[in-house]
Write a structure and sequence with these properties.
Blueprint (H helix, E strand, L loop, with lengths): L1 H26 L3 H23 L2 H18 L9 H19 L3 H6 L1 H12 L7 H7 L2 H12 L4 H8 L3 H18 L6
Helix pairs in contact: 1-2, 2-3, 2-4, 2-8, 3-4, 8-10, 9-10
Family: Belongs to the sigma-70 factor family. ECF subfamily.
InterPro entries: RNA_pol_sigma-70-like, RNA_pol_sigma-70_dom, RNA_pol_sigma70_r2, RNA_pol_sigma70_r4_t2, RNA_pol_sigma_r2, RNA_pol_sigma_r3/r4-like, WH-like_DNA-bd_sf
Protein name: Sigma-70 family RNA polymerase sigma factor
């Protein structure tokens, strides 16, 4: 058992060293190294973008925007934190900014109940719904707060700053998301 743990630790250390050398090369303008970083992280970035946007097309566009911004901001990464932590922060910020720029942002924000009702109609034909689909059903602001807090681990103070809202609003949106998900999962007001 210890031998397996040693192999895993050695493999992880090698991967971290390889990632570090890719980052350093990409920071110097090496496009091949940047492409390798893209390949390593694109699935994780897309997953976060999808959770935040609730829409595959928007998530794909946001993912592209994240990697465009990453190319521009990569020199800002100083190695003081894990690259994946820094990348998640960049992804969340870029995705939120991307959503704000989209035509209809305010319309979607103020008609969130309609979009949830439309989704419910589309989903009613499906007998089994997974957690990811519940997250997608959440109203946009509640979904973004829920993903950033429950999934990505941001504090409400950080979320409030990112989404330009009060800390109390972030907490209220998180509570709303939890209540909706409990209701949809059949847990009611327990």
């Amino acid at each position: 058992m210890e031998a397996q743990a040693s192999v895993v630790d050695a493999s992880e250390t090698f991967s971290q060293q390889k990632e570090k050398s890719l980052i350093q090369a990409a920071q110097k303008g090496d496009k091949h190294a940047y492409h390798a970083l893209y390949d390593l992280h694109v699935k994780r970035v897309y997953a976060l973008c999808y959770r935040l946007t609730g829409d595959r097309a928007l998530a794909e566009d946001a993912t592209q925007e994240v990697f465009i911004q990453l190319w521009r901001k990569l020199t800002n990464f100083d190695g003081q934190s894990r690259f994946t932590t820094w990348l998640h922060s960049v992804t969340a910020n870029v995705t939120v900014s991307y959503l704000r720029k989209q035509r209809g942002w305010f319309q979607r924000m103020f008609n969130i109940e309609e979009s949830a009702a439309e989704y419910e109609q589309a989903e009613s034909s499906s007998a089994e719904v997974d957690l990811e689909s519940f997250i997608v059903r959440l109203p946009e602001r509640a979904r973004m707060v829920f993903v950033l807090h429950a999934v990505e681990g941001y504090r409400h103070e950080e979320i409030a700053h990112m989404l330009n809202m009060a800390v109390g609003t972030s907490k209220a949106q998180f509570h709303r998301a939890k209540q909706l998900m409990k209701e949809w999962m059949g847990y009611g007001d327990e």
